[in-house]
Design goal:
There is one protein chain. 39% of the residues lie in helices and 21% in strands. By secondary structure, the chain is of the alpha+beta class. It has five helices and five strands; from the N terminus they run βααβββαβαα. It has helices at residues 11-20, 27-39, 89-103, 118-125, 143-160; strands at residues 2-5, 43-50, 53-63, 72-80, 109-111. A five-stranded mixed β-sheet has the order 1-2-3-4-5, with helices on both faces. It starts with a strand and ends with a helix.
Length: 163
């Protein structure tokens, strides 16, 4: 098995993996997302490849805390294809996240997982994660309006940091 950074050529398979995670995604949408994620220095995506096929991925970002003087890594997505689960692929991807965090001097990983993902809860608990609370989300705008505003925000951010 090869663990490596995600590349543009992986986009169709990344879209498929998002579907496995419960978020059906068209290749075009993943292409647009990945174009933004790939150039952002605080985001990192690792894929697991077996026999020239992606069988898993982990996507994460580095964040800053208001309440503490320490950054953290938040796992946004971790998925392994159903037919190859329980073969330590998820564990290896998680170890990649830990390595990325360590290389940056980050000492904390965080993850949110839905209530319905009981197997995921056990996966994380068995690897030293503590259950600390509940996550809440609220949609503020229609999808089209949010996309337009977030694209403008992304353009401003890239311009402000000189990209």
């Amino acid at each position: 098995m090869l663990l490596r950074e995600a590349e543009k050529k992986d986009i169709p398979e990344l879209a498929d993996l998002m579907g496995e995670l419960g978020y059906p995604t068209e290749t075009k949408a993943m292409e647009e997302r990945f174009a933004k994620i790939a150039v952002h220095p605080d985001y990192h995506t690792i894929v697991a490849e077996k026999d020239a096929e992606l069988v898993g991925m982990i996507g994460m970002f580095r964040g800053l805390s208001y309440e503490k003087d320490e950054p953290y890594i938040r796992i946004i997505a971790l998925v392994v294809k159903e037919e190859v689960r329980n073969r330590k692929i998820g564990q290896q991807l998680l170890e990649q996240a830990e390595g990325w965090a360590s290389r940056q001097g980050v000492r904390k990983l965080a993850v949110n997982t839905g209530k319905r993902r009981v197997e995921s809860h056990l996966f994380y608990k068995n690897r030293g994660f503590e259950e600390t609370g509940a996550g809440f989300y609220k949609s503020l705008e229609k999808k089209e309006e949010f996309k337009w505003k977030s694209e403008n925000w992304q353009q401003r951010t890239l311009r402000n940091i000189g990209l």
